[in-house]
Design goal:
Structural class: alpha+beta
Largest sheet: 4 strands, mixed
Order of helices and strands: EHEHEEHHHHHHH
Strand order of the largest sheet: 2-1-3-4
Helix content: 40-55%
Number of domains: 2
Shape: globular
CATH class of the largest domain: Mainly Alpha
Distance between the termini: 29 Å
Number of helices: 9
CATH architecture of the largest domain: Up-down Bundle
Strand content: 5-15%
Length: 212
């Protein structure tokens, strides 16, 4: 059985969708994305940053959403959520997950946690504005990559599509983020992914209230 340190509004929701898609038993361990709240010591022992997701299994543990996604997909190839090592789309799959993690998520952090990037509170609004511009830049890269494809990687559904959907749920107009409608290819995939039973189960709070 897998154990997942889990909180709403976090990347742990995307990992939970992967676990649902794979069809393996797992246990959710509640935690928080509020950095002022205490974290379970077991979580901090694995990820001293205090962030989620954190995944445990019978003889190991790890953190970082993109890394966990790669690990789970390779450990459960029967789920067909990732291209095989010799598949021509494998490079794009790895590239895209890392880009989601390092570029798109980083832009979101600028808008949600500007205090982490500046020395003075007076500079936080500038960081937020740069984050919103960076979101538009990074989503444009993904939008152009998808052009002409059914899914992120072409004609096959993968973990990259789940990751894409997860990131779209973080867009907030109130924070100056670009609207999803500005990226029709991204929106088209997100609108299909949200219909999957795994996503319906995990994202029920967001589906009922996108600002949850």
């Amino acid at each position: 059985m897998y154990q997942l340190f889990y909180a709403l509004k976090s990347a742990s929701m995307g990992v939970r969708v992967l676990l649902e898609e794979i069809g393996v038993p797992y246990e959710l361990i509640p935690t928080s994305v509020d950095m002022t709240q205490p974290r379970p010591p077991e979580q901090l022992a694995i990820n001293p940053n205090g962030w989620v997701p954190v995944l445990l299994w019978e003889n190991g543990a790890m953190y970082e959403c993109a890394a966990i996604a790669m690990f789970l997909c390779d450990r459960h190839p029967e789920a067909r959520l990732a291209p095989a090592i010799n598949d021509p789309t494998r490079a794009t799959y790895l590239q895209t997950l890392v880009y989601f993690s390092n570029s798109v998520q980083n832009a979101f952090q600028l808008t949600y946690y500007p205090d982490r990037f500046v020395d003075a509170p007076a500079d936080e609004e500038s960081a937020q504005r740069r984050g919103s511009r960076r979101l538009r830049e990074t989503w444009t890269v993904i939008e152009q990559q998808i052009e002409g494809n059914e899914w992120v990687l072409g004609d096959k559904f993968s973990a990259a599509d789940i990751y894409l959907f997860m990131l779209t749920t973080w867009l907030r107009q109130a924070k100056g983020h670009p609207e999803l409608d500005a990226f029709p290819n991204v929106k088209r995939i997100a609108d299909v992914v949200v219909q999957r039973p795994s996503v319906q189960r995990v994202y029920e709070p967001w589906i009922e209230s996108p600002q949850y």
